[in-house]
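Hi team,

As requested, here is the filled-out complex form for the adenosine-5'-diphosphate run. I kept the field names the same as last time so the parser does not choke. Let me know if anything looks off before we queue the next batch.

— J.
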Amino acid sequence: MAARTVRSASTSSTDPGVTPVGALPGVGPALVATLARLGLERVQDLWFHLPLRYEDKTRISTIGDLCVGERAQVEGVVEAIERGFRYRPQLKVAIVDASRQTLLLRFFHFNRAQAEQLRPGTRLLCYGDVRHGAQGLEMVHPNYQRLSGDAAVVVDELLSPVYPTTEGLSSKRLAGVIGKALALLPAATQLELIPPRLCAQCGLTSLRDALLYVHRPPVDANLAQLTLGLHPAQQRLAFEELLTQHLSLKRMRAAIRRRIAPELGGDGGLRRRLLAGLPFELTAAQQRVAAEVAADLARPQPMLRLVQGDVGSGKTVVAALAALAAVESGQQVALMAPTELLAEQHLHNFRQWLQPLGIEVEWLAGKVTGKARKLALERVASGAPVVIGTHALMQEGVAFARLGLVIVDEQHRFGVQQRLSLRDKGREGERVPHQLVLTATPIPRTLAMSAYADLDVSSIDELPPGRTPVQTIAISNARRSEVIERIRVACGEGRQVYWVCTLIEESEQLRAQAAEVAYAELSAALAGFRIGLIHGRMKPQEKQAVMDAFKRGELAILVATTVIEVGVDVPNASLMVIENSERLGLAQLHQLRGRVGRGALASNCVLLYQPPLGQLARERLQVMRDTTDGFRIAEKDLELRGPGEVLGTRQTGELSFRIADLSRDAHLLPAVQRVGESMLEEHPEQTERLIHRWIGGAARYAHA
Ligand code: ADP
Ligand code: MG
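And here is what came back:
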């Protein structure tokens, strides 16, 4: 036993994986710097730097057998060469092979020396894409090499990997360096960090074999499968990467849970009074989730809970109950929303609910400035119980007296870092506030298990009674006038209508302009109905005035930009027209559509589109017509767009994988979770080493 311990300690100290790349033969300081640009600093970084694709230079095709679209290698003799200057300089080289067929090689970038080397009679070995040209088959800019005399051609014995690389480093040179790194791969049992029992349970091949296969697939490898990333060797690597990410999130969460939080048990008095004053009963789902939240809050460990519920499921009142638990316990609550309009909506709701209980609600948005801001900050610093705002809440100068609970609405708009930075406002040493995160974008279960492994999840999986699903149709912009007639009829029946302009422009100004154009058009076409306009360039009071008028039913039609996307709640609105719907993603369409169908009225949504529709847009609109189920829409969204975008974290790189692809590899996640649990409990040392291998000292987990 003792001998074994000694041996494993010594192997880990000589782990070749952590050797700097500069120690490899032939890798000097210049190359070390270039490799660093690719994030390749240690030998094991090279092991895990995988090919993007493979080239098959293991055989030679005859020109007569070439097919358009394939990448092929051919050997031939130059028959003729021609330099042309039509439109732009180009070099055309005709080669012929034993099949007596001709292939044209075409170059647009070339120098004189190159042209002179390609005289008739020269033997060439070429590799490239076969395409249709004016004079038959051709290759544009093939890779080629000249063959001397009649020496036999030597073909590759393996598929050639093509590596992602950077300027000044060819894939071939990088392949050479990776080859040297692979020579240092330790024996399979030493390399393996997932315990053998768990590997066997999941049918995982050895990591060593997987790496060698992926870097050097044999001639008979299934190239199509490799290209799709579905080969068992690639899946083995994806598994390990997903496992590592899962473990590191779990570990971060464990670290957070070791901290202390204020116990927000409260006596329930304020909560009972709120419920008694509501015009409705909570749904069973709301009651269950509210109880889960209350139980978390009463504990001295920080809550980290995500409440997901489809649009209109009634998350706000659940948040208000959580807030009151904090207030009952003498602690402060901060509620942060991603847009000013949504924050204002919360302010409005919370004031309506809390003022009758004698609780003031503070307002802190970017547009609160000067004296008003100074006073608000003072009240917050001296303990104002409830503060609502936008990301202005996270700014410097905002200090709380005793922040006990942070509520973040529409989480996917904020990154994990932003969420943590608001939490840190209430941090005092090891004491942190509880966190409640609300999202209307249902997170597919698979993603919840990985990206959100640091959060507990509660689902409000039931809508308040009496809602009827929204009927959705897609109509070409060519039939715009029919849609306007439809609006006339609906308004004539006393229904209220949203007309949403969805110009995807960076500037709020252009978006506002588009809305103004639509406003003018509808005002002209529908004289006699009162129409309002709302966009992001308006002052908060102006926006609020328009929203209030629409809420009171004084406006029949509200022309809006996507500022109304989240949270806006006018139950009497029952028709929504979305312009240029083909440009929006599924999540956004679902959010927008959620603004109707909130009351007892049967509601409709018209997706206006500008033909011709691309394939993706067609699929999206089809999904919207087929279902109103947020979970199905989110799953489909994941499939169509990929996880980074679904979570809105693409820029922050929180979910970037080197090998794994969550939409392709989601089927691995249940096993990842099982193995992850065993590893955390039984193999802490290997867990540590896995995280170090894949993530290294990356700063992204520094916040834990
Ligand atoms: P979301 O989950 O989209 O944030 P809201 O909290 O805005 O939903 O609630 C949508 C609407 O449903 C609001 O008008 C709210 O007052 C109402 N509502 C919430 N819970 C219930 C309920 N149990 N019964 C009836 N109406 C409810
Ligand atoms: Mg909401």
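Two things worth flagging: The pocket of adenosine-5'-diphosphate (ligand 1) is lined by residues 280-283, 286, 309, 311-317, 440, 464, 569, 571, 598 (CB under 6 Å). Confidence is low (pLDDT under 50) at residues 1-12, 646-654, 697-704.

Thanks,
J.
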